Amino acid sequence: METHAHGVTRTGARESWARADAQRSDHRQPVGENESKRGPRGYDGGKKVKGRKRHLLVDTNGLMLHVLVHEANIQDHNGGRLLLAPLRGCFPRLKLIWADSAYKKGGFVEWVKATLGWEVEIVEHPWSGLRGVWAPKDAVIDWEQIRPGGFHVLKWRWIVERTFAWLVTWRRLSKDYEVLPSSEEAWIYIAMIRIMLKRLAQNSS
């Protein structure tokens, strides 16, 4: 009996190791790394990614005012409403919000003005959405002047992008590890609190 029990135990251990190895694409990879993540998820058809989005409202210094994590299948203008709706009556000094061109859709700008009393300014390149120009026949068109190629920094837009860059330096936020969106929001707040405390400590010294 004892020998049999011991043999069964060793056999079960070997079988569990075999199953664990089959779940890994690399022997150094954690078990279950390739499995689908739990919790609410969605598919963003524009970016061709499945998962969740992080919606941030930041001030002109890049410090976070509010965060919302939601499924990726929710469009930005609808996610913006979910982000701002709880802030009615908050931030009395706030008058203007800068946003990218994704927030022009769905009546988001009008909704913010009617609901919260804030102005929304869409920050985009002058040539955004340009498909062509009218010109005389046989005219030589300098497209580099009309629609320049390459990367061009947009005023104010880089501020929130820098905040996202700050957050992803934290290991827990480098990927979407959490099951609940509220857990991920909590970790984002913790990371921002740490950033702000570090700046206060530097200024006080």
What does this structure look like?
- The protein is α+β, with helices and mostly antiparallel strands.
- It contains six helices and five strands.
- The strands form two sheets. Strands 1-2-3 form a three-stranded antiparallel β-sheet, with helices on both faces.
- Helix 3 links the parallel strand 4 and strand 5.
- The chain is globular.
- The relative contact order is 0.11.
Quick gist of this model?
The chain contains six helices and five strands; from the N terminus they run αβββαβαβααα.
Please tag this protein with its features.
6 helices; 205 residues; 3-stranded antiparallel beta sheet; globular; alpha+beta
Strand and helix map with partners:
Layout: H1 2-23, E1 42-44, E2 49-58, E3 64-71, H2 76-84, E4 96-99, H3 108-116, E5 119-122, H4 143-146, H5 157-168, H6 181-204
Parallel strand pairs: 4-5
Antiparallel strand pairs: 1-2, 2-3
Structural class: alpha+beta
**Termini gap:** 71 Å
Work out the helix count.
Answer: 6
Mean pLDDT: 79
Q: Could you state the oligomeric state of the chains shown? A: single chain
Strand order of the largest sheet: 1-2-3
